[in-house]
Every structure is written in structure tokens, then in C-alpha cells.
Amino acid sequence: MLKYQRIAEDIEHYIVHNRLKQGDKLPVLEELRRKYEVSKSTITKALELLEMKGIIYQVRGSGIFVRRHKRKGYINLDENQGFRSGLDEFQLTSEVLKLEVMNPSEEVMTNLSISAEEEVYYVKRLRFIHGQRLCIEESYYKKSVVPFLNEQIVSESIFNYLKEGLKLEIGFSDNFFHIGKLTKTEANLLALRTGDPGMYYESVYHLTNGEAFDYSKLVYNFQEAQFYLQINSLS
Amino acid sequence: MLKYQRIAEDIEHYIVHNRLKQGDKLPVLEELRRKYEVSKSTITKALELLEMKGIIYQVRGSGIFVRRHKRKGYINLDENQGFRSGLDEFQLTSEVLKLEVMNPSEEVMTNLSISAEEEVYYVKRLRFIHGQRLCIEESYYKKSVVPFLNEQIVSESIFNYLKEGLKLEIGFSDNFFHIGKLTKTEANLLALRTGDPGMYYESVYHLTNGEAFDYSKLVYNFQEAQFYLQINSLS
DNA sequence: CAGTGGTCTAGACCACGGC
DNA sequence: CCGTGGTCTAGACCACTGG
């Protein structure tokens, strides 16, 4: 593990452990530099990481402050699935509806940039949060990247398996969503009524080398799904 | 303007101007360094910025590549309002329903971290996209930060005024949303039916010094609203 | 004007990809 | 093995905040 990652982690732990609140001041840069015995740039890099994660903000001429404006019960879109699995705080379980190897449809071919010959795993799950129906999930994984899946893996956290088991390095994702009315089939699965509100969410996940390996389509239950998102300015 | 910002902008223009596509390779780091006559770290910083913005991705041992998986007609949540105003591509107009100075409600006090005495501007607008009703927006601006607003400013892009006119430096925002059914009042404004799907979106915008200055509540029309979001891994 | 964070440099060394 | 991006250092200088 790299120095700046270790330092970032340490500072994050420090914030959590000391129950620091929004706006609380952290030690100044020079002090951190002395504490960790690294160069200024390394500390800067660590703080930059924490800033991107929405954990702190830095004010020139003033100091480094804690950013903590989350609301309880909201799912963080950034750490959804592929990234920092912040869903641990939620009791998330799954019922596997389908698991098979297949050839991709046009839609899947487009989103994963593959040909009709390349096989994919198809996984359809019903996901529960605190025992309530949260969403229907249909995922397609490139078989060349994810060579094996079974009922057990798929009934737990797939992304955890991809990262811990297969050591896949996930780089970035493209996400699209809109609101609509549930079809009869969708409503049945979510124990709602036809025409009730639903959020339709699509993701394409890429490895660090840019290769797309997962295309997922989700339909969220309007009664259970609430999200939050921290955005930085990036001048 | 800083060196690394200027370089990042230049590279972005280069990508757009040469119509580079997803996966196209950019010149290698050393070449860019020579071209711009700066140190390696400065180029790295510029590329990091572009990476965060979702414009490129870098692969160690391989190169720098263009990332361009947007879908047309989707609103980018990152560059919504406060940030890179990418809404220019959409024909966005507003009808002002209300504009007044008032004392904050409990809800506004909490979200802006202010007391009951501190006055705020209240703006209610109906926003149109390509002439269609996109959303109802209710915004509260701290009067101490935004001392003046009038009908004309408010009928155009408020954030543009805040940045260009007032020279406010926006640092980050916290965003929350969920799905629900429209009330009668909401449905009337959006020309939909009571009980139709809607997306309820709340934002709190902060200056670079961490001070919250805008709390906004939006209700999106399910027929017009579709969003995208690029997420990076941030190990 | 002292304190604090931000930019930039030059250069050493490391880690990964692909031939 | 070589080319490529990533980390890290030490230090100079700059820009903003707040008393």
C-alpha cells in the first residue's frame, strides 16, 4: 500500500474515531508532514484523495476541515457497488432469479463493446434492503473477464468477489438513469402496482485499463430508494 | 489561470477539435511535457484533472486514452448548475413563480446552518427544457452571500450570475434524491397527473471556504428528466 | 504580516504493459 | 527489456485568511 493511501486511511480513521463533526479543524499540513515523516507533496496527495472522497475540504490560508453532511438511510451513489462498499451499513440481501451464460443481445453488445460471439454471464436478482424489496437487477458480465460465477457467489456481493476473489481492478463507471412507471412484471417483483414510480438505472463498469466488463440494469422501488451524492467543483 | 488548468483546457479542446473517440490514444506524458515545457508533475496534475472530469483515463505502462461514453440528451449531474455549466447544450428556460426575501423555515435553517434571524432569498421557478416542463425549483440563498437578486437575474441562469457577477467561488455540494408520487399542486405545475412519478432532489451548495449558501429543492418531471454520472474509483 | 494551503520544479526510483 | 505512467522527495515561491 502506498504512503499517501495509508496516510489518507489513517486520517479518515482519526476523524471517525474522534467523532469529528462538519467544520472541525484538522492539524495543519506542516504538522501532518512531521507526524508522518513524508514530504509535503505526499501529504497533499493524501488530503486531495480525502477531498475527492468528500471527507474533508481544504481552505487556503485557513486550514483543513471535516466534511460530513451525510444523511442516514441514503445510499451513496459513489460507493455503490464497484467502489468503496458503503452498503455494509445497510442489510442488503439478494434472491437470485436467474444465472446463466448466454450470447449478448444488441443492447449488451453496444454497452460492453463486444461482438455477438463473446459470451456473457447473465444474472438477474431481486435485492432487499432491511428485508424490503429494493430493486430488480439484471447484470451482464464479460465471461473473458469474469470466467466463473455460481449461485453462492451471486447470492452475496458480486463486486466483493470480483475485487477480493478475482483481484479485478475497477477503474470507472458510466451511469445513466431516469424515472418512469413500472410495468406489470416489474411491479409484481417489487410488490408494487403497475404504473407506480420507479427509477431505471444503467451502469457500465470498466477496469483500470478501460475495458468494459459489466453492464447492469436496475429498477428501484420508489418507496425504499434514496440516494446521496457529494460533488466537488474541479475548476 | 494556472499552468495545469491551461494545459488541461488545451488538451480538452484538442480532443473535441480532433473529434477523438472513446479509447483513442493521446500523446505520451513525456511528449506533452516537452510540448508545454513544464515539469512532469504539472502535466500529471493536468491529466489528473481531466481524469476526475471523466474526460480521459490513464493506464500505467500503456498510455493516456479518451473517455467519451456520454449519451445524448442526458443531463450530467456533475456539471449541473454550480459546476461546469454543461446545460448550454440544452435549451433551458425559466418561468419565475416567486421571488422574495424571507426568514428561513426550520428546514432551511438546518440545511444552511443559520439562525432564524438571518434572511434568505426565496426563489421559486418552473424550468423548461426544449420548451417542455422539466422541473419545479425552490431555492433559498443566504442574503449575506447573495445580497441582491431581481426578476431578470432569476429568470436566467442564477449560478452564472453568482460566478460571473458576484465572483462567488463554489467549492462543493451535497445532493440527495428519491422517487415519489406527485402531489396535486406539483402535478398541475408540471402538466402531469396527481400520483405520477417524480424525482425529488435536494442540494446544498457550499463556497470554497465551506460555507453553505444555497439550499434547493427540485421536483423533476419523469418524462423529461434523464441523468448521467461518471464515477471514478479513487482507491 | 505571520500562518496556511497551493503550485511548480528537477530528478530519482518504482510498477505495470506489451513486445 | 523498454516504454509508460505513478510515487516520492526537497525546496522555492505564490496566494489567500485572519488577527
UniProtKB/TrEMBL annotation, chains A, B:
Q: InterPro entries from the entry? A: Bact_HTH_transcr_reg, Chorismate_lyase_/UTRA_dom_sf, Tscrpt_reg_HTH_GntR, UTRA, WH-like_DNA-bd_sf, WH_DNA-bd_sf
List all membrane-crossing ranges: none
Report if keyword Ubl conjugation is assigned: no
Provide the alphabetized UniProt keywords: DNA-binding, Transcription, Transcription regulation
- Is Cell inner membrane a UniProt keyword of this protein? no
Database matches in Pfam families: GntR, UTRA
HTH gntR-type domain boundaries:
1-69
As one GO molecular function, the record gives: DNA-binding transcription factor activity
Question: Per the UniProt entry, what are the Gene Ontology biological process annotations, in alphabetical order?
Answer: negative regulation of DNA-templated transcription
Cited Gene3D superfamilies: Chorismate lyase-like, Winged helix-like DNA-binding domain superfamily/Winged helix DNA-binding domain
Q: Which PANTHER family match?
A: HTH GNTR-TYPE DOMAIN-CONTAINING PROTEIN (PTHR44846:SF4), MANNOSYL-D-GLYCERATE TRANSPORT/METABOLISM SYSTEM REPRESSOR MNGR-RELATED (PTHR44846)
**What is the official name of this protein in its record?**
UTRA domain-containing protein
Q: What is the lineage of its organism?
A: Bacteria, Bacillati, Bacillota, Bacilli, Bacillales
